[in-house]
Automatic annotation (TrEMBL):
Lineage: Eukaryota, Metazoa, Chordata, Craniata, Vertebrata
Organism of derivation: Engystomops pustulosus
Record's protein name: Ig-like domain-containing protein
Signal peptide: 1-19
Keyword Membrane in record: yes
GO cellular component: membrane
Biological process according to GO: cell-cell adhesion
Cellular location(s): Membrane
Amino acid sequence: MSRILLTLYTVILLHQARSDDAVEFKAINSELFALFGDSVWLNCSTPNPKTYFESRLFTKDNAKGSNWVAREVVVDDWEISTMYCYLSPDIDDIKRPITVMAYALPSNVTIDMQPLLKEGEESTITCTVHDVAPQELLTINITRGGDVIDSKSYGGPHVLQRRTVGRVYTFTASRGDNNMNFSCEAILQLGREQKRTKSPDITVQTYAPPEFSERLCPSTLLLGKEKKQVSCLADGNPPPTVECKAFGRHIKNMEAVTGNMTGNYTCLATNQYGNAAKFVTVEYDGNIGSKVGAEVIVVLLTAIITSVWDVL
Ligand SMILES: *[C@@H]1O[C@H](CO)[C@@H](O)[C@H](O)[C@H]1NC(C)=O
Ligand SMILES: *[C@@H]1O[C@H](CO)[C@@H](O)[C@H](O)[C@H]1NC(C)=O
Ligand SMILES: *[C@@H]1O[C@H](CO)[C@@H](O)[C@H](O)[C@H]1NC(C)=O
Ligand SMILES: *[C@@H]1O[C@H](CO)[C@@H](O)[C@H](O)[C@H]1NC(C)=O
Ligand SMILES: *[C@@H]1O[C@H](CO)[C@@H](O)[C@H](O)[C@H]1NC(C)=O
Ligand SMILES: *[C@@H]1O[C@H](CO)[C@@H](O)[C@H](O)[C@H]1NC(C)=O
């Protein structure tokens, strides 16, 4: 009998609520996150002031308003707690769940990588996120110059306790990495909210020993009567200096020279990370730049080892 009356009462309350167009029986937030050890308010909007909570966490405080009831609980459990607000102490089957999860921000996020990288070689970045929880809500992003180059979201079943989580990323260093800032970021996705913790930045320098190419330093140079820019450059980081020598002759790069500079040159490119050498033949062709002249030029070009340079 009392059961029927209570049900009737509930129906009336809900009906009133609907006609007021305001109070619906629901959890204001069905999913809550709290720092481990902190407290959080469970809150249900309800037409019934006798609405009550069942919670497995320690109750710190209670509060109610004209159309809500709330309970403050202490979140000191790594298990996920599902708690309920019941519409009435006498009716068990009208209830709304509220899930509460404890989290912990990382105590530290560190990045480990060499700050000086050789272009073209493999390099490794190690990110370590210390004492974070829960692991399944964690994403580790690695950024280069602000762009994400690696992203790992853990997911999976609920992990109890704080964890230290590492992420290793391997890449091939390139000139584009020079002077770039690298960092690791830990992101905890708590419902719609994100908690981010970033490591310090590491500013990377890249280097490359000198290297000759036919494009930057042709093995054949033909000179005419006019002065002409002689260009023999080498690739490298930092940009190498290039000097070319022949018996009794010396051409600094980009020097304007005339036909009397013919010869078999050895060009040496140098920066602090190494050197490279190349033969360059400069010959005179009187037909170039004027109709007069007959000498024809032959060019020869070979990559040589540095010891040859010393012989000159
Ligand atoms: C519970 O929710 C109501 C409605 O949103 C709000 O007015 C009230 O302040 C909340 N109470 C607590 C303790 O958060
Ligand atoms: C974070 O880790 C770095 C490197 O291990 C250390 O130097 C620094 O003191 C740590 N910071 C904190 C707040 O623990
Ligand atoms: C982390 O990286 C992913 C994948 O690139 C991206 O969608 C997400 O927005 C990044 N998160 C943050 C906070 O930068
Ligand atoms: C790289 O990081 C350093 C140290 O955090 C900062 O001083 C510098 O401005 C950053 N450079 C760029 C290009 O963001
Ligand atoms: C080439 O000619 C220039 C000017 O005509 C002269 O100064 C220079 O010494 C000559 N070089 C050689 C190697 O003969
Ligand atoms: C350059 O080398 C070639 C081939 O060894 C040789 O025939 C030529 O005489 C040389 N030229 C000079 C100016 O030494």
